[in-house]
Amino acid sequence: MVTPAVLAGLAAVSRVSRALASADELAVLAAAALDEMREALDLDRAVLYLPDADGEPVLRRAVGDDAADELSFDEEAWRLATGAPIILREPAGWLVANPFDPPAHDWMLLPLVEGVVIASAPAPIALDALSGTVLSLLCTQLSAGITTARLRRELHAAAIERERRSLAAEVHDGLAQYLAVARRELALEQPDRGRLTEAVEAAHRLVRERLSTLSAETPASLREAVQSAARRSRTPIRVAGHGDAGPEAVTLAARVLREALANADAHAEAHATTVRYAADDERLELTVSDDGRGFDLETAPGAEDGHLGLTVMRERARGHGGECTVTSAPGSGTVVKLWIPL
Fold first, then answer.
1. How far apart are CA 71 and CA 210, in angstroms?
2. pTM value?
3. In CATH, what is the architecture of 222-342?
4. Within 10 Å of residue 83's Cβ, how many Cβ atoms?
5. Confidence bin at 36 (pLDDT 50/70/90)
């Protein structure tokens, strides 16, 4: 027979599972899990301690209030604390100092893969079979959530670092090319004023665009990103598409789209541009086509001439495991296609 207590325990496990599957930070995930522990087991306080930068057996408070900031175990006590749950009475200083303020009379240590949860109860703690099972499942889930949140944070930091280096390289290399052209013209007895002006304006435009990219907020959706980029274009834009993707993929698509539209505004002399996008569980596709004058891909200026637009788009796509292609011919317009795996 399924009793209300069993249903309540299963509901608590289910709620924690959903919370830990979200993209929230560690503190939010852990707080949700601790709340469920308190409700399911009639606890009044629960605190998560995790190893500090120097490792075990010194742990620091990660989530929870009314408790010590730090716990110190000796080696023998730490081995005990990382086994099965331990129910304690009174201060129990033989294992670890009572962390609560005011000190708890009935409390317990719940070991995790990393760290420990320490909880107190208003009445003597007695774990029956159901409570023990629920507690074990919640601790396992919380351990998995901690690991997942840390990996997510590391991946996010790696993505930011990769993007930072990419932007730094673009600005550095682009400015070097444009300023080299300007320096060569200035060294001549009769510099080409038009070429000098073009090089300086291009350098200024590059810096302005990259600073705008750095300061721009991540679009909430793929459609918002496309529409935002389209609004900046001087050429009428027709947008069609469906689907959505994660923040990193949306940001990449938005930057490639802005680059393609900037090139169209600057060089294509187009009357209209069409943007199509599609995203599903496997890939994101983006196509930008204009009816402008087009150009010869064989003779088009490249990075060696200070024109980084096409190179930047291709490198961005490759950095995410995808591809960006450009198709054009004089008098036939230009088509930029991007795809990246999701």
1. 47
2. 0.46
3. 2-Layer Sandwich (3.30)
4. 9
5. confident
